[in-house]
Each structure stands twice: as C-alpha cells, then as structure tokens.
Design brief:
The structure is a single chain. The chain is mostly helical and about 200 residues long. It has helices spanning about 1-55, 60-65, 70-75, 80-90, 90-100, 110-120, 125-135, 140-160, 170-180. Helix 1 (about 1-55) packs across helix 5. The two termini are about 50 Å apart.
Length: about 200
C-alpha cells in the first residue's frame, strides 16, 4: 500500500513538473512570436511613413524630370530622375513590407546577441525580474493553485466516503462533535423513542 502511495506521489510530482515546463514553453513561444510581430509592424510603419514622405518631397522633381529641357540640363544626374520615376510607381505598402522583412530580427527590435548582452549587462536584478514575471503569470500560478484545489477536494471526498481511510482520531473528533450537538438524555429515556 505504501509503495502505491509513493508511486502516486511521484506521478503527481512528475505531472506538476510537466505542467510547469509546458507552461514555460508556451509563455516563451507566445512572447517570442509577439515580439517578432510587434517588431515587424513597427518596421513596416516606419518604412511606410518615410516612403510616403519621400515621394511627397519628390513630386516637384518628378514633374520637372518629365520635361525634356530640364532632363537634358541634368546630364550627369539623370540617375536621380530615374530613381524618382521608379519611386513614383512603387506602392508604399509593398515598400513597407519589403523593408520590414529585410530588417527582420529573430528577437524583435534587436538581434538576439544584442538582446542577450542587454539582459546580461543588466545583471541579477534583470534576471530576477524576468523570473518573478514568470512566477506571477497566470499560466504558472493558476495550474498550480488548481492542482492544489483538486488534491484538497479529492482528499476531503476520500475522507468522507471511504470507511477504510478513516482513522480512529477522525472518528473520535466527529463523535465528540456529534455528542455536543445532540441534546442530553435522561437515564429513564434511553430506551424510548421520543415523539415530537
């Protein structure tokens, strides 16, 4: 019987360890993907706005580059006109997507080595904050509390329903409690049933 309880306890501990590791992996995966997405959106926004501003500032040059007289006066700088004309036919959203994907970093706004050096140079307080953030997150605390709640209710149910698990101290406590609640009986009324 004791080896069965020991193996059950080991299984519960292994289950808890597996739940914690699954939660840690899911938190890290969701955080990593979120950082990458936010970084891509930021880079897209910056590239999109800057390209629109660039094309607005090149409108005057685009108009004049279409004039043959102006174009011939810029004999050595015709590449500027070609660049302006090329920019005028590019869709700003596609330019933003291209720039965003061209600057893609696996750790969000920074290269992973740069991010690691930032965290490492922060020292123990940064690592402690990251650890405490993980501990406080609901994906760690809630499964742990839920498991404790289920164990408590399982033990309470087993104590109430299983006569083989009840020990003598349990029976004595409840017998004393039941004696306190029942009204005192006189010696002559012990055998009779009292009708109310």
């Amino acid at each position: 019987m004791s080896t069965h309880k020991g193996s059950l306890a080991k299984m519960h501990i292994m289950g808890d360890i597996m739940a914690v590791s699954k939660n840690a992996c899911s938190i890290m995966t969701v955080s990593w993907i979120s950082i990458i997405i936010v970084g891509r959106i930021y880079d897209f926004h910056v590239a999109y706005i800057s390209f629109i501003e660039q094309t607005k500032s090149e409108e005057w040059l685009l108009e004049h580059c279409q004039d043959d007289h102006f174009f011939h006066k810029m004999a050595y700088h015709t590449d500027v006109c070609a660049l302006v004309m090329g920019n005028s036919i590019i869709w700003p959203s596609l330019h933003g997507i291209n720039e965003s994907m061209g600057k893609m970093k696996l750790c969000g706004l920074y290269d992973c080595s740069t991010l690691f050096s930032i965290v490492y140079s922060g020292g123990f307080p940064v690592l402690l904050c990251i650890f405490l953030l993980y501990i406080v997150t609901p994906s760690f605390i809630l499964p742990l509390l839920q498991r404790m709640y289920y164990i408590y209710h399982e033990n309470a149910l087993m104590n109430k329903c299983s006569p083989s698990l009840r020990n003598s101290s349990y029976n004595k406590k409840h017998a004393m409690y039941n004696d306190r609640l029942s009204p005192p009986q006189s010696p002559s009324s012990k055998g009779r049933v009292k009708l109310v």
